[in-house]
């Protein structure tokens, strides 16, 4: 009897396995919450969205009309007040010629407001293109070129570079009573400009910045006093320049130091 009890004790107890329990509620609750939020948003959007009843367009309208703007965005209005893609509408308006910037906004309950800014032509590019105040070519060809604008020209895709040089030189010349009528950059990289008084200035291809500063610092003052006698100025020298007079004579190559002395003598004779 004792042996049987011992054998019973030695026999290992059978282990019971339990499947892990998963609390489904932990997963279902967030999904239900997300579903409720999405459904509420969709329902609210459908209730709030409505057809666009009117478009408000404001701007200077010197070159572009409100009708042109309305026509270019007409296909985007069917999406409704909330469904309309304002960014796409803005891009369509900005793509119109003479439009510089556009702002598009919703106005509750069913109105779209568009405000435009037109380009301001600052210079003529080539034969009939126009540059804005940032030196960007915004119109390739216009029928009527404003005669009062400066004339800039150069190889394709160099409009910004030519505009920067024009603005820099003009800014320095205005205080001393001079202005620039045209700036030209040819295919070889050579620069020329014409002042509003008709004097031609040849800057060449090398050291253009240095030559420009020499012209502004020294030669421009000479032109101010004797513009009626001067035909052109040639800055294409390593250490000086020449002045071409309207009577056909030309000064020899002149160093900046010599020119300063000549200018002082000229002032003393007045």
Describe what you observe in this structure:
- By secondary structure, this protein is an alpha/beta fold.
- Among the domains are: 65 residues, Ubiquitin-like (UB roll) (Roll), CATH 3.10.20.310; 121 residues, Cell division protein FtsQ/DivIB (Rossmann fold, 3-Layer(aba) Sandwich), CATH 3.40.50.11690.
- The chain is 37% helix and 24% strand.
- It is built from 7 helices and 12 strands.
- It has a 9-stranded mixed β-sheet, with helices on one face. A 3-stranded mixed β-sheet has the order 1-3-2, with helices on one face.
- Helix 6 runs parallel beside helix 7.
- It is elongated and about 90 Å long.
- The N and C termini lie far apart (148 Å).
- The C terminus is likely disordered.
Largest sheet entry: 9 strands, mixed
**Overall average pLDDT:** 83
How many E strands? 12
CATH-level-2 architecture of the domain at 149-269: 3-Layer(aba) Sandwich
Report the total helices: 7
Q: Summarize the amount of helix as a percent range.
A: 25-40%
Q: How are strands sequenced across the largest beta sheet?
A: 6-5-4-7-8-9-10-11-12
Shape: elongated
Following the backbone from N to C, one meets helices and strands in this order, namely HHEHHEEEEEEHEEEHEEH
Low-confidence stretches: 263-270
Using only C-alpha atoms, the radius of gyration works out to 38 Å
CATH topology-level fold name of the domain at 149-269: Rossmann fold
Through-space gap between termini: 148 Å
Structural class: alpha/beta
Please identify the top-level CATH class of the domain at 149-269. Answer: Alpha Beta
The CATH H-level superfamily of the domain at 149-269 is: Cell division protein FtsQ/DivIB
Strand content: 15-25%
């Amino acid at each position: 009897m004792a042996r049987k009890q011992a054998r019973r004790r030695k026999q290992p107890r059978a282990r019971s396995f339990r499947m892990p329990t998963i609390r489904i509620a932990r997963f279902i609750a967030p999904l239900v919450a997300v579903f409720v939020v999405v459904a509420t948003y969709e329902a609210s959007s459908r209730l709030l969205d409505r057809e666009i009843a009117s478009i408000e367009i404001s701007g200077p309208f010197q070159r572009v009309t409100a009708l042109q703007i309305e026509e270019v965005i007409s296909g985007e209005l069917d999406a409704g007040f909330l469904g309309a893609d304002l960014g796409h509408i803005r891009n369509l308006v900005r793509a119109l010629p003479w439009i510089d910037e556009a702002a598009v906004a919703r106005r509750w309950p069913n109105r779209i407001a568009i405000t435009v800014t037109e380009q301001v032509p600052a210079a003529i590019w080539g034969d009939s293109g126009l540059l804005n105040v940032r030196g960007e070519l915004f119109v390739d060809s216009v029928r009527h070129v404003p005669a009062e604008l400066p004339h800039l020209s150069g190889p394709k895709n160099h409009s910004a570079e030519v505009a920067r040089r024009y603005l820099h030189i003009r800014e320095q010349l205005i205080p001393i009573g001079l202005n620039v009528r045209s700036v030209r950059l040819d295919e070889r990289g050579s620069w020329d400009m014409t002042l509003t008084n008709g004097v031609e200035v040849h800057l060449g291809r090398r050291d253009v910045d240095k030559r420009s500063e020499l012209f502004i610092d020294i030669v421009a003052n000479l032109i101010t006093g004797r513009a009626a006698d001067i035909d052109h100025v040639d800055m294409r020298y390593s250490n000086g320049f020449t002045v071409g007079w309207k009577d056909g004579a030309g000064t020899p190559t002149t160093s900046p130091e010599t020119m300063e002395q000549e200018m002082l003598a000229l002032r003393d004779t007045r």
